[in-house]
Hints:
Helices cover 26% and strands 27% of the residues. It has helices spanning 11-15, 40-51, 84-87, 93-117, 138-150, 184-197, 309-326, 371-386, and strands spanning 6-8, 29-30, 33-36, 56-59, 75-77, 124-132, 155-159, 171-181, 201-203, 208-213, 218-222, 227-230, 232-235, 251-260, 273-277, 284-287, 293-301, 334-344, 351-354, 361-365.
Amino acid sequence: MNVQYVQGDCIFTRVNKITKQYEYLTEDIDTDVIIVGGGVTGAILGYYLTKNNIKCVILEKSRVGHGSTSITTSLLQYELDSTIMGLKQYTTIENIIKSYRLGVKALNEIQDFIEKYGNNCDFKRVDSFLYTSKEIDKNKVEEEYQIRKDNGFKVEFIDQSSNPFTFDVKAGLLSKDGGAQFDPFRFTHELLRVSCESSLKVYENTEVVSITYNENDVIAETVYGHKVRGEIIIAATGYNTQLFTKREFGTKTTAFNLATKPINNLEERYKSIVFRDTEVPYNYFRTTNDNRIIIGGEDINFLPDIFNEQLCIKSYDKLEQRIKNLFKQHKVEIEYRYCGAFASTQDNLGFIGKDPDRSRLWYCLGYGANGILFAILGGIMLSELYLGKVNEDLKLFDVDRFDS
Length: 404
Ligand SMILES: Cc1cc2nc3c(=O)[nH]c(=O)nc-3n(C[C@H](O)[C@H](O)[C@H](O)COP(=O)(O)OP(=O)(O)OC[C@H]3O[C@@H](n4cnc5c(N)ncnc54)[C@H](O)[C@@H]3O)c2cc1C
């Protein structure tokens, strides 16, 4: 079956008129690091490796940023998909707090990039808000607030009496500067632009069809028969990893997003916060610079062909109803509907590091709702690893951690 990973009218690839195209590979080449995949993860890896003077190339089978990067909500938060107590059965509280701190570090890294190279991707550092409108979930939010506060995070508790929003909040946890938002398609192109001005090489329409692992090198063969020789190869192919391994890395679902038309007189307070509720599956929303709202949620079991229209329509309709209920004071009209594969893990973390059986095969897989922040951490830690420094935090993202 031809597996479809993205479907619909994605806002970020529709509103952007990026004409930059990269050549396809027409010769055999040598490099140090071969990155397979030209989504946001591949671009982040390219940026950090190049910054560390490591020679690398990106091989992308279609066009840059048109995989799951085109449908990500890009609602960035240091916190994970579940609460600390919800995750406790799969990992330790210490590890969760550590990953929250790494999330803050990744947010700061993106902010530094923007400050250095200019804000060409609508980046905005914002607060993040976790809330419930259900009496029964109040304790969950209170508990989360207390643990984060005890661990030094800048948090504020909000209850019904202090709720500044126009929708019902029984309990809420506001994290100061705990989030960010941007346009992921433009961010990806920006990373590539900056890195290609240095030494990065990017090839579009260059699918890797086979890989040979040798004692002294690794060779990726591309669809038109050209070979790329490197010291290592990094899988940055998102939810599509069959080329590298038979291993199933996460639990796949199909996730849905809607983007509204620009909303007149949208209140300022909604523009400086990203929102997520405690429902299972949870719903989340953010705004854009031109006053649209992007809402996501209503995930269902993965549909490999994504063309089960009935099921898709059901999820889109539920999301539309939800956003209209949240913003009753406004005329809300939906302009874009899109969906695609999403993969989650028990501890909500992605996979970064070496394959347990092949030392020349490395992974950078941003699974879970914090995929972009994990890719930033991957870029930093895998560059260090290539230069011989093992970062202890890599253990959190170990490729093997669920097998032992
Ligand atoms: C609906 C949705 C909402 C999300 N929201 C958020 C969010 O708010 N915040 C967040 O941090 N994360 C979020 N995520 C996760 C985030 O989107 C992913 O972590 C990120 O997009 C993954 O990017 P990627 O570059 O790894 O994958 P992709 O963008 O899919 O890129 C992989 C690339 O590899 C290429 N490729 C595949 N096979 C080959 C091959 N053999 N040869 C060459 N190229 C190949 C593909 O063509 C593709 O372009 C969300 C995901 C979804 C689906």
